[in-house]
Amino acid sequence: MQIGILQTGASPDALRGEHGDYPDFFERLLQGRGLAFRRYHVEAMEFPASVHDCDGWLITGSRHGAYEDHPFIKPLEDFVREAYAEHVPVVGICFGHQVIAQAMGGKVERYAGGWSVGPTDYDFGGERFTLNAWHRDQVTLKPAMAEIVGSSDFCENAALLYDDRIFTVQAHPEFPNSFVDGLMRTRGPGLVPDELMAAARDRFQGPLDSPRMADRIADFFLSHQAKKTGAEKLRA
């Protein structure tokens, strides 16, 4: 199954040599799960010609706010709405989670409660996932058609499901602890409170559930492909 990665930001220059850029993270996260990848740097206005150019789409994180006035954001929102209308599956992570919610009628804001950083516990219908977080913006009002499928004490709308067509997560399952530590060193000082970064580092010794979330993301894509294949066989 071909997944188009819509890149909406770039990893810091100081970390890119060791960790790669954002699409690299997702290809590592999802490797071995029956998915192939094609990259589109939409932040640089490199958009697919059609929502059908790939079998599904994944929107990455970004240092930008979904509510900011950047040239790529409105075309990306249009792309999301068209993919939803055409039943092409989309996954959004962090900024991707937020810009999808905004495109579909929700609201994204700089959260008054501040930052969420490092390993964080999320409740997915009674199942706990510990995933890395790095965000100050949040979806503060979910779109009417979206179902909350994951939340935390800090972030109510931490994961949203839009029918069987869009699945989004506020956390960063693609980020290992070493990269979050790098973000704290390169972007954190003066921006993220020191006590939050210290608490995040204290949790780095515990396990992350990134592989389980990778399974969930892959299953979302592949189940959609299986339904599409089944429908095509019925029409044949």
From TrEMBL:
Transmembrane segments: none
Record flagged with keyword Translocase: no
Glutamine amidotransferase domain segment(s): 53-175
Highest taxon, organism lineage: Bacteria
InterPro entries: ChyE-like, Class_I_gatase-like, GATASE
PROSITE patterns documented for this protein: GATASE_TYPE_1
Keywords: Glutamine amidotransferase
Protein's name according to its UniProt entry: Type 1 glutamine amidotransferase
